[in-house]
Protein backbone atom coordinates (compact mmCIF):
# COMPACT_ATOMS: atom_id res chain seq x y z
CA UNK A 1 0.00 0.00 0.00
CA UNK A 2 1.28 3.46 -0.92
CA UNK A 3 2.61 5.47 2.06
CA UNK A 4 0.47 8.37 3.23
CA UNK A 5 1.68 11.70 1.85
CA UNK A 6 -0.61 14.28 3.44
CA UNK A 7 -2.89 14.00 6.48
CA UNK A 8 -5.84 16.30 7.07
CA UNK A 9 -6.64 16.56 10.77
CA UNK A 10 -10.42 16.76 11.16
CA UNK A 11 -10.20 18.21 14.63
CA UNK A 12 -8.91 21.16 16.62
CA UNK A 13 -7.03 22.12 19.79
CA UNK A 14 -4.57 19.92 21.61
CA UNK A 15 -5.32 16.70 19.73
CA UNK A 16 -4.74 18.43 16.38
CA UNK A 17 -1.37 19.68 17.64
CA UNK A 18 -0.60 16.20 18.96
CA UNK A 19 -1.28 14.53 15.58
CA UNK A 20 0.66 17.18 13.66
CA UNK A 21 3.69 16.56 15.89
CA UNK A 22 3.89 12.88 14.98
CA UNK A 23 3.10 13.43 11.29
CA UNK A 24 6.00 15.89 11.05
CA UNK A 25 8.30 13.41 12.76
CA UNK A 26 7.35 10.87 10.09
CA UNK A 27 7.87 13.35 7.25
CA UNK A 28 4.16 13.53 6.36
CA UNK A 29 2.58 16.84 5.35
CA UNK A 30 -0.39 18.08 7.39
CA UNK A 31 -3.53 20.12 6.77
CA UNK A 32 -5.44 21.87 9.54
CA UNK A 33 -9.11 22.69 9.03
CA UNK A 34 -10.56 25.42 11.19
CA UNK A 35 -13.67 27.38 12.04
CA UNK A 36 -13.80 31.17 12.21
CA UNK A 37 -13.13 31.39 15.99
CA UNK A 38 -10.08 29.10 15.56
CA UNK A 39 -8.47 31.05 12.70
CA UNK A 40 -5.47 32.11 14.79
CA UNK A 41 -5.15 28.98 16.93
CA UNK A 42 -1.93 27.13 17.63
CA UNK A 43 -2.94 24.05 15.67
CA UNK A 44 -3.62 26.15 12.57
CA UNK A 45 -0.18 27.73 12.84
CA UNK A 46 1.46 24.35 13.42
CA UNK A 47 0.20 22.62 10.27
CA UNK A 48 1.84 22.82 6.84
CA UNK A 49 -1.42 24.01 5.30
CA UNK A 50 -4.67 25.39 6.67
CA UNK A 51 -8.17 25.30 5.20
CA UNK A 52 -11.08 27.39 6.47
CA UNK A 53 -14.31 25.53 7.08
CA UNK A 54 -16.09 28.74 8.06
CA UNK A 55 -18.82 28.66 10.67
CA UNK A 56 -18.55 29.28 14.36
CA UNK A 57 -19.90 26.29 16.22
CA UNK A 58 -19.02 22.62 15.76
CA UNK A 59 -22.11 21.80 13.74
CA UNK A 60 -21.29 24.38 11.08
CA UNK A 61 -17.60 23.45 10.92
CA UNK A 62 -15.92 20.34 12.38
CA UNK A 63 -19.08 18.23 12.28
CA UNK A 64 -19.97 19.13 8.71
CA UNK A 65 -19.00 15.99 6.76
CA UNK A 66 -19.31 17.56 3.33
CA UNK A 67 -17.14 20.54 4.25
CA UNK A 68 -14.37 18.32 5.63
CA UNK A 69 -14.41 16.05 2.58
CA UNK A 70 -14.30 19.09 0.30
CA UNK A 71 -11.25 20.29 2.25
CA UNK A 72 -9.57 16.92 1.58
CA UNK A 73 -10.27 17.14 -2.13
CA UNK A 74 -9.08 20.72 -2.48
CA UNK A 75 -5.88 20.21 -0.50
CA UNK A 76 -5.05 16.80 -1.95
CA UNK A 77 -4.94 15.09 1.44
CA UNK A 78 -4.84 11.32 1.03
CA UNK A 79 -5.70 10.49 4.66
CA UNK A 80 -7.72 11.93 7.53
CA UNK A 81 -6.93 11.66 11.21
CA UNK A 82 -10.15 12.36 13.14
CA UNK A 83 -8.64 12.80 16.62
CA UNK A 84 -11.33 12.18 19.24
CA UNK A 85 -14.88 13.53 19.37
CA UNK A 86 -16.39 15.30 16.35
CA UNK A 87 -16.32 12.82 13.41
CA UNK A 88 -14.02 10.24 14.97
CA UNK A 89 -16.79 7.65 15.40
CA UNK A 90 -18.99 8.71 12.49
CA UNK A 91 -19.57 5.70 10.23
CA UNK A 92 -21.05 7.79 7.44
CA UNK A 93 -17.94 9.99 7.35
CA UNK A 94 -15.58 6.99 7.19
CA UNK A 95 -17.62 5.41 4.39
CA UNK A 96 -17.68 8.61 2.33
CA UNK A 97 -13.92 8.98 2.65
CA UNK A 98 -13.52 5.43 1.35
CA UNK A 99 -15.62 6.28 -1.70
CA UNK A 100 -13.29 9.17 -2.47
CA UNK A 101 -10.21 7.00 -2.04
CA UNK A 102 -9.15 8.88 1.09
CA UNK A 103 -7.88 6.79 3.99
CA UNK A 104 -9.50 7.11 7.41
CA UNK A 105 -6.90 6.71 10.16
CA UNK A 106 -9.10 4.60 12.36
CA UNK A 107 -11.04 1.34 12.33
CA UNK A 108 -13.16 0.12 9.44
CA UNK A 109 -16.72 1.50 9.26
CA UNK A 110 -18.28 -1.85 10.21
CA UNK A 111 -16.38 -1.85 13.53
CA UNK A 112 -17.39 1.74 14.32
CA UNK A 113 -20.99 0.89 13.57
CA UNK A 114 -21.03 -2.32 15.58
CA UNK A 115 -19.49 -0.76 18.69
CA UNK A 116 -21.47 2.48 18.40
CA UNK A 117 -24.73 0.68 19.20
CA UNK A 118 -24.66 0.27 22.99
CA UNK A 119 -27.18 -2.54 23.19
CA UNK A 120 -25.90 -4.21 20.02
CA UNK A 121 -22.25 -4.07 21.14
CA UNK A 122 -23.21 -5.52 24.51
CA UNK A 123 -24.89 -8.47 22.83
CA UNK A 124 -22.02 -8.86 20.36
CA UNK A 125 -19.23 -9.09 22.94
CA UNK A 126 -21.34 -11.28 25.21
CA UNK A 127 -21.41 -13.89 22.41
CA UNK A 128 -17.59 -13.88 22.54
CA UNK A 129 -17.58 -14.58 26.25
CA UNK A 130 -16.96 -11.04 27.48
CA UNK A 131 -18.87 -10.43 30.72
CA UNK A 132 -21.61 -7.78 30.59
CA UNK A 133 -23.58 -6.28 33.48
CA UNK A 134 -26.47 -8.63 34.32
CA UNK A 135 -29.74 -6.91 33.52
CA UNK A 136 -33.15 -6.84 31.91
CA UNK A 137 -33.94 -4.86 28.77
CA UNK A 138 -36.99 -6.73 27.52
CA UNK A 139 -40.06 -5.16 25.95
CA UNK A 140 -42.50 -5.85 28.80
CA UNK A 141 -42.90 -3.04 31.33
CA UNK A 142 -45.24 -4.99 33.60
CA UNK A 143 -44.38 -4.65 37.29
CA UNK A 144 -44.70 -8.41 37.72
CA UNK A 145 -41.98 -8.88 35.06
CA UNK A 146 -39.73 -6.31 36.75
CA UNK A 147 -40.10 -8.14 40.07
CA UNK A 148 -39.24 -11.47 38.49
CA UNK A 149 -36.24 -10.09 36.61
CA UNK A 150 -34.96 -8.17 39.66
CA UNK A 151 -34.94 -11.40 41.65
CA UNK A 152 -32.92 -13.05 38.90
CA UNK A 153 -30.40 -10.17 38.79
CA UNK A 154 -30.09 -9.84 42.56
CA UNK A 155 -30.28 -6.69 44.68
CA UNK A 156 -29.14 -3.94 44.67
CA UNK A 157 -30.18 -3.00 41.16
CA UNK A 158 -30.39 0.16 39.08
CA UNK A 159 -33.56 1.18 37.28
CA UNK A 160 -32.56 3.24 34.24
CA UNK A 161 -34.56 5.18 31.70
CA UNK A 162 -34.22 3.38 28.37
CA UNK A 163 -34.07 6.71 26.54
CA UNK A 164 -32.13 8.37 29.34
CA UNK A 165 -28.87 10.06 30.04
CA UNK A 166 -27.29 12.47 32.49
CA UNK A 167 -28.57 10.56 35.50
CA UNK A 168 -32.24 11.35 34.84
CA UNK A 169 -34.72 8.52 35.31
CA UNK A 170 -32.25 6.51 37.37
CA UNK A 171 -32.94 4.96 40.77
CA UNK A 172 -30.89 2.68 42.97
CA UNK A 173 -33.12 -0.03 44.46
CA UNK A 174 -31.73 -2.04 47.37
CA UNK A 175 -34.63 -4.26 48.41
CA UNK A 176 -37.77 -5.88 46.93
CA UNK A 177 -39.88 -3.44 48.96
CA UNK A 178 -38.27 -0.49 47.18
CA UNK A 179 -38.78 -1.93 43.70
CA UNK A 180 -42.28 -0.72 42.78
CA UNK A 181 -41.99 2.84 44.19
CA UNK A 182 -38.50 3.14 42.72
CA UNK A 183 -39.56 2.08 39.24
CA UNK A 184 -42.67 4.27 39.29
CA UNK A 185 -40.57 7.25 40.37
CA UNK A 186 -37.99 6.57 37.64
CA UNK A 187 -40.78 6.25 35.07
CA UNK A 188 -42.30 9.60 36.04
CA UNK A 189 -38.94 11.34 35.74
CA UNK A 190 -38.14 9.57 32.47
CA UNK A 191 -41.47 10.55 30.95
CA UNK A 192 -40.97 14.16 32.00
CA UNK A 193 -37.38 14.35 30.75
CA UNK A 194 -37.50 12.24 27.60
CA UNK A 195 -41.17 11.70 26.77
CA UNK A 196 -40.49 7.96 27.10
CA UNK A 197 -41.03 6.07 30.36
CA UNK A 198 -39.54 2.70 29.39
CA UNK A 199 -37.22 1.34 32.08
CA UNK A 200 -34.46 -1.24 32.03
CA UNK A 201 -32.81 -2.92 35.02
CA UNK A 202 -29.12 -3.51 35.69
CA UNK A 203 -27.14 -5.01 38.52
CA UNK A 204 -25.82 -2.20 40.73
CA UNK A 205 -22.08 -2.44 41.15
CA UNK A 206 -21.02 -1.24 44.60
CA UNK A 207 -18.03 1.12 44.75
CA UNK A 208 -17.24 0.66 41.07
CA UNK A 209 -13.96 1.52 39.44
CA UNK A 210 -13.49 2.38 35.79
CA UNK A 211 -10.68 0.36 34.23
CA UNK A 212 -10.07 0.35 30.49
CA UNK A 213 -7.65 -1.36 28.14
CA UNK A 214 -5.83 0.19 25.23
CA UNK A 215 -5.99 -2.25 22.36
CA UNK A 216 -4.45 -2.18 18.91
CA UNK A 217 -5.13 -4.24 15.79
CA UNK A 218 -3.70 -4.39 12.29
CA UNK A 219 -4.86 -5.55 8.88
CA UNK A 220 -3.12 -8.92 9.35
CA UNK A 221 -5.47 -9.95 12.14
CA UNK A 222 -3.04 -9.21 14.99
CA UNK A 223 -4.70 -7.66 18.06
CA UNK A 224 -2.87 -6.91 21.30
CA UNK A 225 -3.45 -4.84 24.42
CA UNK A 226 -1.15 -2.09 25.66
CA UNK A 227 -2.08 -2.35 29.34
CA UNK A 228 -4.84 -0.83 31.40
CA UNK A 229 -5.72 2.67 32.54
CA UNK A 230 -7.65 3.46 35.71
CA UNK A 231 -10.06 6.36 35.16
CA UNK A 232 -12.15 6.04 38.31
CA UNK A 233 -11.95 9.68 39.32
CA UNK A 234 -14.83 11.12 37.35
CA UNK A 235 -17.27 13.97 37.70
CA UNK A 236 -20.66 13.44 36.11
CA UNK A 237 -19.24 10.58 34.04
CA UNK A 238 -16.40 12.77 32.74
CA UNK A 239 -12.89 11.52 33.49
CA UNK A 240 -10.81 13.87 35.62
CA UNK A 241 -7.69 11.84 36.49
CA UNK A 242 -6.26 8.90 34.53
CA UNK A 243 -3.35 6.66 35.42
CA UNK A 244 -1.51 3.51 34.52
CA UNK A 245 -0.87 0.93 35.89
CA UNK A 246 -4.13 0.72 37.84
CA UNK A 247 -3.53 0.80 41.62
CA UNK A 248 -4.31 -2.20 43.81
CA UNK A 249 -4.67 -4.43 40.80
CA UNK A 250 -3.33 -7.95 40.84
CA UNK A 251 -1.84 -9.78 37.87
CA UNK A 252 -4.54 -12.47 37.79
CA UNK A 253 -7.31 -9.89 37.44
CA UNK A 254 -5.31 -8.00 34.83
CA UNK A 255 -4.86 -11.18 32.81
CA UNK A 256 -8.61 -11.90 32.83
CA UNK A 257 -9.58 -8.35 31.90
CA UNK A 258 -6.97 -7.99 29.17
CA UNK A 259 -8.11 -11.29 27.63
CA UNK A 260 -11.70 -10.01 27.64
CA UNK A 261 -10.61 -6.72 26.04
CA UNK A 262 -8.83 -8.51 23.21
CA UNK A 263 -11.82 -10.82 22.74
CA UNK A 264 -14.11 -7.79 22.40
CA UNK A 265 -11.83 -6.31 19.73
CA UNK A 266 -11.62 -9.61 17.87
CA UNK A 267 -15.42 -9.75 17.78
CA UNK A 268 -15.29 -6.96 15.16
CA UNK A 269 -11.91 -7.79 13.53
CA UNK A 270 -10.64 -4.51 14.92
CA UNK A 271 -7.94 -2.45 13.21
CA UNK A 272 -6.16 0.55 14.68
CA UNK A 273 -6.39 2.09 18.18
CA UNK A 274 -9.36 1.40 20.42
CA UNK A 275 -10.26 1.25 24.07
CA UNK A 276 -12.37 -1.36 25.81
CA UNK A 277 -13.92 0.02 28.98
CA UNK A 278 -14.98 -2.03 31.98
CA UNK A 279 -16.70 -1.39 35.28
CA UNK A 280 -14.84 -3.17 38.08
CA UNK A 281 -16.56 -4.14 41.32
CA UNK A 282 -15.03 -4.33 44.77
CA UNK A 283 -14.84 -8.12 44.70
CA UNK A 284 -12.98 -8.22 41.40
CA UNK A 285 -16.05 -8.79 39.22
CA UNK A 286 -15.88 -6.83 35.98
CA UNK A 287 -18.25 -6.08 33.12
CA UNK A 288 -18.00 -4.60 29.63
CA UNK A 289 -19.14 -0.99 29.46
CA UNK A 290 -18.38 0.03 25.90
CA UNK A 291 -15.66 0.19 23.28
CA UNK A 292 -14.39 3.53 22.01
CA UNK A 293 -13.28 3.13 18.41
CA UNK A 294 -10.70 5.93 18.39
CA UNK A 295 -7.71 7.37 20.20
CA UNK A 296 -8.57 8.33 23.77
CA UNK A 297 -7.91 11.67 25.45
CA UNK A 298 -5.90 9.81 28.07
CA UNK A 299 -3.62 7.91 25.65
CA UNK A 300 -0.49 9.83 26.84
CA UNK A 301 -0.23 7.83 30.07
CA UNK A 302 0.09 4.68 27.99
CA UNK A 303 2.75 6.33 25.87
CA UNK A 304 4.65 7.55 28.95
CA UNK A 305 4.95 4.04 30.39
CA UNK A 306 5.59 2.09 27.18
CA UNK A 307 7.69 4.58 25.21
CA UNK A 308 5.37 4.13 22.22
CA UNK A 309 3.84 6.74 19.93
CA UNK A 310 0.26 5.59 19.44
CA UNK A 311 -0.44 8.11 16.67
CA UNK A 312 2.51 6.70 14.74
CA UNK A 313 1.09 3.21 15.21
CA UNK A 314 -2.27 4.44 13.91
CA UNK A 315 -0.67 5.87 10.78
CA UNK A 316 1.46 2.77 10.11
CA UNK A 317 -1.52 0.42 10.52
CA UNK A 318 -3.54 2.62 8.17
CA UNK A 319 -0.74 2.24 5.62
CA UNK A 320 -1.16 -1.53 5.81
CA UNK A 321 1.87 -2.22 7.99
CA UNK A 322 1.85 -4.90 10.67
CA UNK A 323 1.91 -3.89 14.32
CA UNK A 324 5.50 -3.01 15.25
CA UNK A 325 5.30 -5.76 17.84
CA UNK A 326 2.74 -8.51 18.30
CA UNK A 327 3.29 -8.98 22.01
CA UNK A 328 2.29 -6.56 24.72
CA UNK A 329 5.37 -4.49 25.57
CA UNK A 330 6.42 -4.09 29.21
CA UNK A 331 5.51 -0.99 31.17
CA UNK A 332 8.06 1.13 32.96
CA UNK A 333 7.10 3.22 35.97
CA UNK A 334 3.79 4.97 36.59
CA UNK A 335 2.05 7.81 34.70
CA UNK A 336 -0.85 10.10 35.60
CA UNK A 337 -2.83 12.65 33.62
CA UNK A 338 -5.15 15.45 34.71
CA UNK A 339 -7.20 17.73 32.50
CA UNK A 340 -6.88 21.44 33.22
CA UNK A 341 -10.05 23.25 32.23
CA UNK A 342 -11.15 26.87 32.02
CA UNK A 343 -14.11 26.43 34.30
CA UNK A 344 -15.37 27.63 37.65
CA UNK A 345 -15.73 24.81 40.16
CA UNK A 346 -17.61 27.13 42.56
CA UNK A 347 -20.28 27.70 39.93
CA UNK A 348 -20.98 24.11 39.06
CA UNK A 349 -17.90 23.88 36.84
CA UNK A 350 -19.41 26.25 34.29
CA UNK A 351 -17.00 27.08 31.43
CA UNK A 352 -15.02 30.28 32.01
CA UNK A 353 -14.37 32.09 28.75
CA UNK A 354 -12.00 34.92 27.85
CA UNK A 355 -8.35 35.63 27.03
CA UNK A 356 -5.56 33.67 28.67
CA UNK A 357 -3.26 36.52 29.66
CA UNK A 358 -0.52 34.21 30.83
CA UNK A 359 0.00 30.47 30.75
CA UNK A 360 3.11 28.69 31.93
CA UNK A 361 4.07 25.26 33.12
CA UNK A 362 7.08 23.98 35.04
CA UNK A 363 9.83 22.30 33.08
CA UNK A 364 10.69 18.76 34.12
CA UNK A 365 12.06 15.70 32.36
CA UNK A 366 9.15 13.68 33.69
CA UNK A 367 6.46 16.18 32.68
CA UNK A 368 4.53 16.25 29.41
CA UNK A 369 2.08 19.00 28.48
CA UNK A 370 -0.45 18.50 25.69
CA UNK A 371 -2.24 21.75 24.94
CA UNK A 372 -3.78 23.69 22.10
CA UNK A 373 -3.49 27.13 23.66
CA UNK A 374 -0.74 29.55 24.68
CA UNK A 375 -0.58 32.92 26.39
CA UNK A 376 -2.88 35.25 24.47
CA UNK A 377 -5.26 32.50 23.29
CA UNK A 378 -8.99 32.89 23.73
CA UNK A 379 -11.26 30.38 25.43
CA UNK A 380 -14.54 30.74 23.57
CA UNK A 381 -18.05 29.58 24.24
CA UNK A 382 -18.09 27.44 21.11
CA UNK A 383 -15.89 24.50 22.13
CA UNK A 384 -14.63 22.40 25.00
CA UNK A 385 -12.76 24.72 27.42
CA UNK A 386 -9.76 22.43 27.98
CA UNK A 387 -6.52 24.34 28.52
CA UNK A 388 -4.10 21.45 28.74
CA UNK A 389 -3.48 17.89 29.74
CA UNK A 390 -0.73 17.64 32.32
CA UNK A 391 0.96 14.24 32.40
CA UNK A 392 3.70 13.13 34.79
CA UNK A 393 5.80 10.01 35.06
CA UNK A 394 7.45 8.50 38.13
CA UNK A 395 9.42 5.38 38.98
CA UNK A 396 6.48 4.36 41.17
CA UNK A 397 2.96 5.59 41.94
CA UNK A 398 3.77 7.66 45.02
CA UNK A 399 6.56 9.44 43.16
CA UNK A 400 4.15 10.17 40.31
CA UNK A 401 1.56 11.59 42.74
CA UNK A 402 4.09 13.85 44.42
CA UNK A 403 5.34 15.06 41.06
CA UNK A 404 1.78 15.69 39.90
CA UNK A 405 1.01 17.81 42.96
CA UNK A 406 4.26 19.72 42.52
CA UNK A 407 3.66 20.45 38.82
CA UNK A 408 0.07 21.52 39.39
CA UNK A 409 1.19 23.93 42.09
CA UNK A 410 3.70 25.52 39.69
CA UNK A 411 1.28 25.85 36.77
CA UNK A 412 0.13 29.42 36.27
CA UNK A 413 -2.96 30.54 34.39
CA UNK A 414 -4.03 34.17 34.42
CA UNK A 415 -7.33 34.93 32.77
CA UNK A 416 -10.23 32.50 32.91
CA UNK A 417 -11.01 30.66 36.13
CA UNK A 418 -9.65 27.12 36.22
CA UNK A 419 -9.98 23.82 38.05
CA UNK A 420 -6.31 23.85 39.12
CA UNK A 421 -6.98 24.09 42.85
CA UNK A 422 -9.69 21.48 42.63
CA UNK A 423 -7.26 19.10 40.93
CA UNK A 424 -4.57 19.73 43.53
CA UNK A 425 -6.94 18.91 46.37
CA UNK A 426 -8.24 15.86 44.57
CA UNK A 427 -4.85 14.23 43.96
CA UNK A 428 -3.71 15.18 47.46
CA UNK A 429 -6.37 13.16 49.24
CA UNK A 430 -5.44 10.19 51.38
CA UNK A 431 -7.94 8.01 49.53
CA UNK A 432 -6.34 8.71 46.16
CA UNK A 433 -2.87 8.08 47.55
CA UNK A 434 -4.07 4.69 48.77
CA UNK A 435 -5.72 3.91 45.44
CA UNK A 436 -8.99 3.62 47.27
CA UNK A 437 -11.43 5.63 45.16
CA UNK A 438 -14.48 4.72 43.11
CA UNK A 439 -16.34 6.57 40.38
CA UNK A 440 -18.47 8.09 43.16
CA UNK A 441 -15.57 9.63 45.08
CA UNK A 442 -15.79 13.17 43.71
CA UNK A 443 -19.56 13.39 44.10
CA UNK A 444 -19.33 12.03 47.65
CA UNK A 445 -16.61 14.52 48.66
CA UNK A 446 -17.41 17.57 46.56
CA UNK A 447 -17.88 20.12 49.40
CA UNK A 448 -14.43 19.40 50.81
CA UNK A 449 -12.81 19.29 47.39
CA UNK A 450 -14.30 22.67 46.55
CA UNK A 451 -13.28 24.43 49.74
CA UNK A 452 -10.99 27.40 49.19
CA UNK A 453 -7.91 26.99 51.35
CA UNK A 454 -5.52 28.91 49.16
CA UNK A 455 -3.98 31.76 51.12
CA UNK A 456 -3.90 35.23 49.71
CA UNK A 457 -0.14 35.26 50.26
CA UNK A 458 0.23 32.30 47.91
CA UNK A 459 -1.86 33.99 45.26
CA UNK A 460 0.34 37.09 45.51
CA UNK A 461 3.46 34.95 45.31
CA UNK A 462 2.18 33.32 42.13
CA UNK A 463 1.41 36.72 40.67
CA UNK A 464 4.92 37.87 41.53
CA UNK A 465 6.39 34.80 39.86
CA UNK A 466 4.45 35.64 36.72
CA UNK A 467 5.55 39.26 36.44
CA UNK A 468 9.20 38.50 37.14
CA UNK A 469 9.41 35.42 34.96
CA UNK A 470 11.23 35.21 31.67
CA UNK A 471 9.44 34.49 28.43
CA UNK A 472 7.12 31.59 29.22
CA UNK A 473 8.05 28.17 27.97
CA UNK A 474 6.22 27.01 24.90
CA UNK A 475 5.21 23.43 25.69
CA UNK A 476 5.02 22.62 21.98
CA UNK A 477 8.67 23.16 21.37
CA UNK A 478 9.59 20.35 23.69
CA UNK A 479 9.49 16.85 22.26
CA UNK A 480 8.09 14.52 24.83
CA UNK A 481 7.82 10.82 25.25
Walk me through what this model shows.
This protein has 481 residues and is α+β, with helices and mostly antiparallel strands. The chain has 17 helices and 23 strands. The strands form six sheets. The protein has an eight-stranded antiparallel beta sheet, with helices on both faces. A five-stranded parallel beta sheet has the order 3-2-1-4-5, sandwiched between helices. α1 links the parallel β1 and β2. α4 packs antiparallel against α5. The longest helix has 19 residues. It is globular. The two termini are 29 Å apart. The C terminus is likely disordered.
- pLDDT averaged over residues: 92
Helix content: 25-40%
Strand order of the largest sheet: 14-13-10-11-12-15-22-20
Between the first and last Cα atoms, what is the distance in angstroms?
29 Å
Number of helices: 17
Q: Which stretches are low in confidence, meaning pLDDT under 50 for 5 or more residues running? A: 469-481
Number of β-strand runs = 23
